[in-house]
Design brief:
Blueprint: H1 3-18, H2 22-35, H3 41-54, H4 57-65, E1 76-80, H5 90-98, E2 102-106, H6 114-125, E3 133-135, E4 144-148, H7 151-160, E5 166-169, E6 173-177, H8 184-195, E7 205-211, H9 217-222, H10 233-248, E8 254-255, E9 260-263, E10 273-279, H11 282-291, E11 296-300, H12 329-336
Parallel strand pairs: 1-2, 1-4, 2-3, 4-5, 6-7, 6-11, 7-10, 9-10
Antiparallel strand pairs: 8-9
């Protein structure tokens, strides 16, 4: 399918998705939540907003025109999707379709309702694309692989798929940098970067870097509107558990009733907890980020002096060209045509 026609089809798909009526959407949310209690209506709506951005015709045109996308000699590409946040594997699927390959999709059991539903809407628009997307229980002789999972599952993927071209993603975290000069709006946005999807995504902030003697009271005051997160029973259970562990071990921490802040040199914080470390200078910040770059997905800050940083509130609003782990999937898939 020519790029111009494909872009029109994908934009029509966006319109069809946006036109899902309230009754169907509510039923879709009910079925999804029955499989995964973390997937609330708000989280699903947030994921659909992300797909709406991806399928915008102008953005698609800018994205595809900026890359060489041959369509000859298509391959079977296996996609192992994660289930931590709704439809997290959508971008991998879209990249595969755009480059003309066939996607064999192994869905997570935690998220096997949403993507099949919207893919059927795509097939209604363009039956031709039904040959490019297949959902499978087991990958069958893929010629390339894109797999997302934990550090443990990544070792499994690397062992079994070492002989074919592959992108294998491990655990990553995101970092928020506070200077002490943030506005109320910036701190509120940082709170969303921490708490959207209950902090379950690799783009959620789990580590803060703050100046020495930073007063967290201003931070807490401005994320107060996000307190409804603790009304979710799974999040509340994690909050209660992690708070009790900190108390039992007589560890210092801060608490506002829904988010625990603890000083730690660790990167990966548990749900309902955000770790922090102090920094002394911009030079120390750059050094820290460079030392940990293999573990970091996003860096947010209010300034523009740090390489690769993005603004507060944007971690869960990636664009088509914001590739996970900074690996250009479109380039990877386009290169398969020459193998």
């Amino acid at each position: 399918m020519k790029n111009s026609l494909l872009i029109n089809v994908l934009n029509d798909w966006r319109i069809r998705i946006n036109d899902i009526n309230h009754i169907n959407f509510s039923e879709l949310c009910r079925k999804t939540k029955a499989k995964n209690g973390w997937f609330t209506k708000e989280s699903i709506s947030l994921a659909f907003n992300g797909i709406n951005r991806f399928l915008d015709a102008e953005k698609l045109r800018k994205w595809i025109d900026g890359n060489s996308v041959p369509h000859q000699n298509p391959k079977e590409v296996g996609i192992v999707m994660a289930g931590n946040i709704p439809m997290v594997g959508f971008h991998d699927m879209l990249c595969t379709v755009v480059t003309g390959h066939t996607a064999q999709i192994k869905l997570s059991s935690q998220d096997d309702v949403l993507i099949p539903y919207i893919v059927n809407l795509l097939f209604d628009i363009s039956p031709e694309l039904s040959h490019q997307i297949r959902f499978v229980n087991k990958l069958k002789s893929p010629q390339a692989i894109i797999a997302t999972g934990s550090n443990n599952s990544a070792r499994y993927f690397e062992y079994y798929f070492s002989s074919i071209p592959h992108i294998i993603r491990k655990n990553r975290i995101s970092v928020g940098i506070i200077s002490g000069n943030e506005s109320k709006e910036e701190l509120y946005s940082l709170g969303k970067d921490i708490l959207q999807y209950f902090g379950l995504g690799c783009r959620n902030i789990s580590k803060l870097l703050v100046p020495e003697k930073y007063d967290f009271r201003f931070f807490y005051e401005n994320i107060e509107p996000l307190q409804s997160v603790v009304l979710h029973h799974k999040y509340a259970n994690n909050y209660d558990y992690n708070k009790s562990i900190l108390l039992i071990n007589v560890l210092k921490f801060l608490d506002n009733g829904f988010l625990l802040v603890q000083e730690s040199n660790q990167l990966v914080s548990p749900i309902s907890v955000v770790f922090y470390e102090n920094y002394k200078s911009d030079k120390a910040l750059v050094s820290y980020l460079d030392q940990n770059k293999k573990e970091i997905q996003c860096v947010v800050s209010g300034g523009d002096h740090l390489p690769g940083r993005i603004p507060f509130g944007s971690t869960q609003k990636p664009e088509l060209w914001d590739y996970s782990d900074n690996v250009n999937i479109l380039e990877f898939l386009s290169g398969l045509h020459h193998n």
